Amino acid sequence: MSKRRPVLGFLIRFLLLYTVLMIPWPGVRESYRSAFMAGARTFATLITSGDPVEVIPIDKAKGPEDTALVIQEDHGGSVRIGINSGEVAYFPTALAITLILSTPAPWRRRIRGLLVGLLLINGFIVIRLAVMVWYTHSLLVTQVAAIVTPSPPTFLSKALQNATFAAGIQFVGVGHGLACIIAVLIWTLVMLRGLDFSLLLSETDAKSHQPEES
Amino acid sequence: MNGGEAVKDRAKGPLIRFVIVFILLIGVFYAFYVPISQTPAYQSFLAMFAQATGAILSIMGQDVTVIGVDVESSLFHMQIVPGCDGMEAMALFVSAVLASPVSLRLRIWFMLPGILGVLLVDLVRLVSLFYIGTNWPAALHVMHWDIWPGLLIVIVLSSWLVWARWVWHRQQRVADVQT
Lengths: 214, 179
Known about the structure:
The structure holds 2 protein chains of 2 kinds.
Chain A: H1 6-22, H2 28-47, E1 53-57, E2 67-72, E3 78-83, H3 85-102, H4 107-148, H5 155-173, H6 176-191, H7 194-201
Antiparallel strand pairs in A: 1-2, 2-3
Chain B: H1 3-36, H2 40-59, E1 65-67, E2 70-72, E3 77-79, H3 87-99, H4 104-135, H5 140-178
Antiparallel strand pairs in B: 1-2, 2-3
Helix pairs in contact in B: 1-3, 2-4, 3-4, 3-5, 4-5
């Protein structure tokens, strides 16, 4: 079926594998969160130019967030942002893994794609964390500045603040939309080869190319 | 360089062009979408989604009230926010189609019904989330954040792949006729 109807095969494999990865198996998400927190701690400290960053677990019974980033400033202020490691990191990773492993390609190519794909998706997660830490840190700086020189926010500054929040947190930080797009982009980069793509779509030389692999 | 390598090299062109155009289009989308989604005018657009969701739920026998971007019943309350509107899935679809190296006519022909399809799937998603929130609240978070985003993406991607294969078969037929 998969050879004759590769898209249907891809769809079925995707649904099966995605379901398996998204089932809350005991211990899997907890282990992932521990690894995520260790990584987050390392990168958060690197990008806040020395301000102490704490990455602490949150009791999930109190809400969807399971991890908190707390940034402290020299003047004594602190900002805390709650994140869900599942949404920020596990989801894009699972999506990328599923897309890559569901592709109708030889296993060797899928495994190679998986290794490169995991590297790239973790790069994206690092960027997400960096943006969130940067945003949290800038919030702290703004708070300190507001205490030192209080002034009412102008329309422009409020609009800018909203747009920054939207870009930083809503879309890059926790949004699933961009995570999905990045996962698809990574899948394109690691799984589609020039020749396959040319065979799939190109209007030129459609007959002259022969399929490299099924 | 032997003949096989030359073919491979030549074949890389469309893929590289696809990736570059795809990234550019997604960048343009976010450059507009992020600030616009924060404006009061965008709330009116989201309110249309709420109205459509409310209308479908009413047809299905649910007693719901729609106020602005809120859809509520006596058992469940749902708010349509930027990100719930399926715009990013649509951007993925439109960017993938527009970046594909085929004639503009084929791209436009597929894009228009595709956009409607994505909107429809997003409405199905919203209606299903309302049902799940009403009848199975414990599963709402998983369905909202884990299951539906993946489902939406694989639907968009599969649609694009089906179209791409249709285009390829079409080229093959044209090439057969020519030879």
